Amino acid sequence: MPDLSRVMRERNIIFVTLALCLVFYLISPRFLSLDNMSAISRQIVPIGLIALGQFFVVVSGNIDLSMGMGSVLFAIVLGVFFGLTGGVALGIVAVIVCSLALGFFNGVLVAKLGLPAFIVTLSMLFSAQGLSGLIIPRGQQIFLMGDFFRFIGAETFLGLYWSFLFLLALFALAWVVYNHTSWGAAVIAVGNSEENARLAGVNVDRVKIGVFMVSGLCSGFAGIMLSSRMGFVQPGLDGNGLLLDGIAAIIIGGTLILGGRGTIGGAFWGLLFIGIINNALNLLNVEDVWHQVFKGAVILAALGANWLLWQSRQVEAH
Amino acid sequence: MTRRLDMHGIGKSFFATRALDNVDFTCIAGEVHALVGLNGAGKSTLMKILGGVYQRDEGEILIDGQTVEITAPADAGRHGIAMIHQELSLINELTVAANIFLGREIRRGRTPFLDKAGMARAVRAQLDRFGLSLDPHKPVRELNSGEKQIVEIIRALMSDAWLIVMDEPTSALSEEDKEMLFDFIRRMKAEGIAIIYISHHMPEIFSIAEQVTVMRDGRIVLSERTGETTEDAVIKSMTGAELDQFVKPHKQITGEVVLSVEDLSSPGKYEGVSLDVHAGEIVVLTGLRGCGAPDLAKAVFGLDPDYTGTVRYMGRTLTPGRGPAVAVRQGMGLVTENRDKNGILPPLSVRDNIALPFLEKSVTAGLIDGARVDGIVDKAIRDTSTKTASPAQEIRFLSGGNKQKICFSRWLDEDLKLLILLEPTRGIDVHAKADIYRIIEDLAERGVAILILSYEIDEVLMLGDRVLTLFEGRTVQDYSYPHFDKDRMLADMAGAGHAT
């Protein structure tokens, strides 16, 4: 079957991303200003967290559709605790516990009952959406103010946002776990062939539950980051847009949607690619309705050209 | 002490069928023991008992003189017995070393981090020990099938296997890889590993095995040192002394030439093959797995763009690789060897599976004529005596034999001129087999030219008006009914007389 990840393995994503930067720069020089770069770095944090969690789930041969609405729900959990206590510590503990629990629940249904991840996490998506609206009625919101949210949302260190540094640290951690622990190898093995992995002695169920707990936790973190940046929470946040951007990032970064293959580095470049498009279209004042159309067109043009180029090279190599 | 495996008086029945009857089998460390027999002779049942997949009804298994119980595949592993299957069980996306250590990785001290260098070193040490060179850091997907097989064996050896069972290991290998594998096997012998080698390939058996055992109808019929027997004796005992009597009526082939293949070659698959198939004639290609016959048949169906030579069909020369869509329009049909993968569409109904190739022809005014399709489907189900609850039944719930009949029934319309069948009775029961043979004979009667690939000698003899034996992509012999010679055909297939 056509294999996007092979295209991306050629490191073309780096050139495509840089070329995209050049194009946007030529249209609007402001694009490459320090201020804007730093804005991009902050905007991509929630998407990056979704992408990172989704990465492990997808490599294991599954998918977690509940990540986007899950992060909205967790943002609301944080907001409710903030509203009740005026502090954040308890709220963060609650988000971590809830997000791990959601992931565990997803994982158990997939691993132990053998239900397809698509079905399990799709119903979780709707449940999370419903719960969010139950906790805070539509049209209302909770404002988040205080040192913590300012720190996460706006403080910098050596010119870099703390939230972006947090994301970088998590990517680094993920790289180590994926490439240098037996768990990483087990995730790849399960994504390639559950049966063969099982025969080799891999505890397949535990790997599946594990990846969903990772994606759950990542959506919890994404909820915290999202709400801190916005300064308020409400159930109408576009969780599914976040989810799709996250999935797009890892696929653009060369992760095989069917599982079994992908790199953390590729996922990071895919994330930059998505982040740059989102930012540039805002910067260029593209009308909201056209924003998505252009995004689709850019992804299709950049990746399609890349794919065709790669194919013609394959033919020559024969 | 030399390690040894003894299987004593092994018996096994499946319902009324006696699959194994009082089988004795011994294997000694440092030797290769070749196990030979036709399909259904009981080889794989015996090996599945050894591997813990089946449970024996009678007899005992001893390792180094001690009785052992092998009731699950894990037991076999614990006793140092490893099965290397044709479908390899590696993870393509992981490296050689990661595959070998999957599930029991080496870590750096007490940290959770992998000791990749240490694992690579251990793998390299094993490879060196057997004179092999492979990069432990290479992803398995970049290896060829010979190298993959080696990785799988090394993995077994590194989990302390002393007895390796190899099931037709060379069937998918190039000449070069075969040499590499044989070298490896010789070194394993020198290191005191015992090997059970399932194969029909006579030159291979006589070049690497110390002992050869032949099974037929669930019994051991010959077990000798290879130095004390001959290829002929082995082949004779495979088929049995009594020659089957064929009652195939002699057919006068008078139809025109439908398919004419001349000097067809495709690199690495087949070479210089020529054959004619007349209307109403059944031509059978046979050989061992890897003999190139399926590729040849697929080339005729337009699936190989790279052959040289000519394929003439109904008097016209065909373009290589023109694709199945064109072939079907020209009146060809193909029943693939793997019906679950390339034959049926599992989630669809029986009706939709049968109707697929007819849909284009059943269109009136832009819409599919449902009544006409139903008619075709009902007739096809009747003609093939397919057992299905209704045409709306999902095909995946049918038995193997009934699925196969549906793969056939797709092609039963009047436009069919040439039908290509790859292993038409693979994995189906006796009754369904009889139905399939009847369908094939009926089609030939109707004047359809039929080209069959079969690996089962009795089927070859029963169906063929003409039989071509192939060995490593080349025609060995062309037989016309009634001048069939079962022993010579088997010898052709096994490459008897060829040096490896």
Describe this structure in words.
The complex is a heterodimer of chains A (318) and B (500). Helix content of chain A is 77%, strand content 3%. With 318 residues, chain A is mainly alpha-helical. In chain A, the strands form two sheets. Chain A has a two-stranded antiparallel ribbon. In chain A, β2 (156-157) and β3 (160-161) form a beta hairpin. Chain A is globular, with a radius of gyration of 20 Å. The mean pLDDT of chain A is 88. Helices cover 32% and strands 25% of the residues of chain B. Chain B contains 17 helices and 22 strands. Chain B has helices at 43-50, 73-78, 96-100, 116-129, 145-158, 175-190, 202-208, 231-239, 293-300, 324-329, 339-343, 350-355, 370-383, 400-409, 430-445, 457-463, 486-493; strands at residues 4-14, 17-28, 32-36, 58-63, 66-68, 81-84, 163-167, 194-198, 211-216, 219-225, 257-266, 270-278, 282-286, 308-313, 316-317, 332-335, 363-364, 367-368, 418-422, 449-453, 466-471, 474-480. In chain B, α8 (231-239) packs across α17 and α14 (400-409) runs parallel beside α15 (430-445). Chain B starts with a strand and ends in a 7-residue tail after the last helix. Chains A and B meet through α9 and α10 of A and loops of B.
Overview features:
heterodimer; A: 318 residues; mainly alpha; two-stranded antiparallel ribbon; two-stranded antiparallel sheet; 14 helices; 77% helix; 3% strand; B: 500 residues; alpha/beta; Rossmann fold; six-stranded mixed β-sheet; 17 helices; globular
